[in-house]
Write a structure and sequence with these properties.
This protein has helices at 50-67, 88-98, and strands at residues 5-8, 23-26, 29-35, 75-82, 105-110, 121-128. It is an alpha+beta fold. A 6-stranded mixed beta sheet has the order 1-2-3-6-4-5, with helices on one face. Helix 2 (88-98) links the parallel strand 4 (75-82) and strand 5 (105-110).
């Protein structure tokens, strides 16, 4: 049986103006575009405040996953972009707040800028519907 690809988006979709999908689902997999501190109207949330921006981005990620029939518990991989690595300890605290063990695989990258100059934090994710209900920790 062939896989199906489905666009996932909130209403309104603040990404519409940028010609990209908030997320794409293919069977149980959900590939979420980078979520940042964008309000529903496309405006910036928490300009100049890293913590507020990062929390808004995590909340946006959570909302997109919910629309896809998933949740943060199903996230298996994230890539986090920050404009200054001085915020790394805050990122660790946010991961502990929004995710649970075993934590998703993660890459964190410092970039010189994000899509909009006011943005300081962005998180993209890969999730698998139902993965969170079967979490376990293994050792090698």
């Amino acid at each position: 049986m062939p896989s199906t690809m489905q666009r996932i988006h909130t209403k309104p979709d603040p990404f519409e103006a940028f010609s990209l999908s908030q997320a794409i689902a293919v069977d149980p997999w959900i590939f979420v575009s980078g979520q940042a501190a964008l309000a529903k109207d496309g405006g910036i949330v928490g300009e100049g405040d890293f913590q507020v921006q990062a929390e808004a981005a995590f909340e946006n990620l959570s909302e997109v996953l919910q629309v896809a029939g998933s949740s943060l518990a199903d996230v298996v991989k994230v890539t986090i972009y920050v404009t200054d690595m001085q915020y790394f300890p805050a990122v660790v605290a946010l991961r502990q707040r929004y995710f649970s063990a075993p934590y998703p695989a993660d890459s964190i990258v410092q970039v010189s800028a994000l899509a909009l100059p006011e943005l300081m934090f962005e998180i993209e994710a890969v999730a698998m519907r139902g993965a969170g209900s079967a979490k376990s920790e293994g050792t090698c």
